[in-house]
């Protein structure tokens, strides 16, 4: 029964045993499963990847396999986080490490927020910008915007949050927001800014330093989702 479906719970197993005439407790089911060499685990939820997407992830990871931490450090990794207190109150957040927007508004965000934020750490130096495959990001006009501004964009495989370390930063922000429990829109904005400001450079450096391990994990998993 276990081999047929490894995602069954102890309750599922007990129900099947009961239906087959074996009356037992959940604790007994647990002990028997342990005796058979199985361990109870909560499965991680990962994006569903088709064969083409897995191959693209594998190709991407192989190409970036020998990138150094210094190379990864020159990569802008933005992401939008939409958080809400009580509907309909909500706030859209722009953050970058180092949205439901259309191509035109996304380019305005890049122009007025990304460029000034990138100028502080990089100045006139070249850097590589990374975003995912949202329609506003992959639009032809957005591609032209990057070309016109002389900015290199990192190619990105679909359904790959495990390759984007800024996801870990947003997780930190979300956890802090749960502790803050804001009740108004102003409180929400203040809590987001405070939680983002509390992220240390050391945390960012550790996440960037994890990129070589992430690419190795994708290669080892042959393109399937990893633990990250």
From TrEMBL:
Source domain of life: Eukaryota
Record field: transmembrane: none
Domain Tc1-like transposase DDE, residue spans: 95-189
Domain (Transposase Tc1-like) ranges: 2-64
InterPro entries for this protein: RNaseH_sf, Tc1-like_DDE_dom, Transposase_5, Transposase_Tc1-like
Gene3D superfamilies: Ribonuclease H-like superfamily/Ribonuclease H (3.30.420.10)
Protein name: Transposase
Biological source species: Cirrhinus mrigala (Mrigala)
